[in-house]
Specification:
Glutaredoxin, 8% strand, 5 strands, binds FE2/S2 (inorganic) cluster, 2Fe-2S, 5-stranded mixed beta sheet, alpha/beta, NADH dehydrogenase [ubiquinone] flavoprotein 2, mitochondrial, NuoE_dom, Arc Repressor Mutant, subunit A, iron-sulfur, NAD
């Protein structure tokens, strides 16, 4: 009878023939979040944080007590993923575990739970299109069709032949008021998408040009309607100003009075 840990360790060491491993494009929306050994993703795959990222790691870990380093798992995995072209390898996770002095399984548990960790290589631009109800009703599937048409991608989680784009369908990313939207490389939100502005955005990415993230309707400010505020317009804004110095003096006087009575 093997313990769970022994079985896990055996599985992690199993080297499958890479012909079996190269995963074809899948028909479902997400990628694989558990580990699949592949040529570029085994324990021996080199990974080392850059000096700059070691400084960032130090800054992050300063936020936590020494015995709660584990709290840095998500932060460090994000750093590792970003450094490695948005691909979080097994060796990168092991590096994170080593730095945080936790068993590797503690890192694997986190990265196999959160879908924002890419356990397979993705293109230079990882396009995550939201297809939850508000975005779906506002044309998310037209956006995905445009992306497929302009990049040659046929299935979700496929990377375009030029290695530039990977398309993924995701659930609500919290920008429903400006639907439809997509997130790029876990960082930038592009909202108010239409097939036209999506095509333009892809072209700009292809040319390596910037494209202002956020609402794509010029009249829109943040999540307000394009026609501006239409509700609660009669609410008077009251700015509270407190004199903290006076409040402190008042508190100290009350405290002194209390002490004098005892
Ligand atoms: S439904 Fe798409 S961001 Fe919320």
């Amino acid at each position: 009878m093997f313990s769970q840990r022994t079985i896990f360790n055996k599985l992690m060491k199993t080297k499958m023939p890479t012909s079996l491993i190269k995963t074809p494009a899948r028909a479902f929306s997400g990628g694989f979040y558990n580990h699949r050994s592949a040529e570029d993703n085994v324990e021996e795959t080199p990974f080392e944080f850059t000096e700059e990222n070691y400084k960032e790691i130090k800054r992050i870990l300063n936020k936590f007590p020494e015995n709660y380093k584990q709290s840095g798992i998500i932060h460090l995995c994000f750093l590792a993923q970003k450094q490695n072209n948005n691909f979080l390898t097994l060796s990168a996770m092991n590096k994170v575990a080593k730095i945080l002095e936790v068993p590797p399984i503690s890192v694997y548990e986190v990265t196999s739970f959160y879908t924002m960790f890419n356990r397979e290589p993705v293109g230079k631009y990882h396009l995550q299109v939201c297809a939850t109800t508000p975005c779906m009703l506002r044309g998310a599937y037209d956006i995905m069709d445009t992306i497929k048409e302009k990049t040659g991608i046929k299935h979700l989680m496929e990377t375009s032949k030029d290695g530039l784009f990977t398309l993924q369908e995701v659930e609500c990313l919290g920008a429903c008021a400006n639907a439809p939207m997509m997130q790029v490389n876990n960082e930038w939100f592009y909202e108010d998408l239409t097939p036209e502005n999506t095509a333009l955005l892809l072209e700009r990415m292809r040319q390596g040009e910037g494209f202002e993230p956020g609402p794509q309707i010029p009249e829109r400010k943040n999540a307000e309607g394009p026609q501006g505020r239409t509700t609660l317009t009669n609410v008077e804004h009251v700015f509270h100003e407190r004199d903290f110095k006076a409040a402190k003096e008042e508190w100290e006087a009350a405290k002194a009075e209390q002490a004098a009575k005892q």
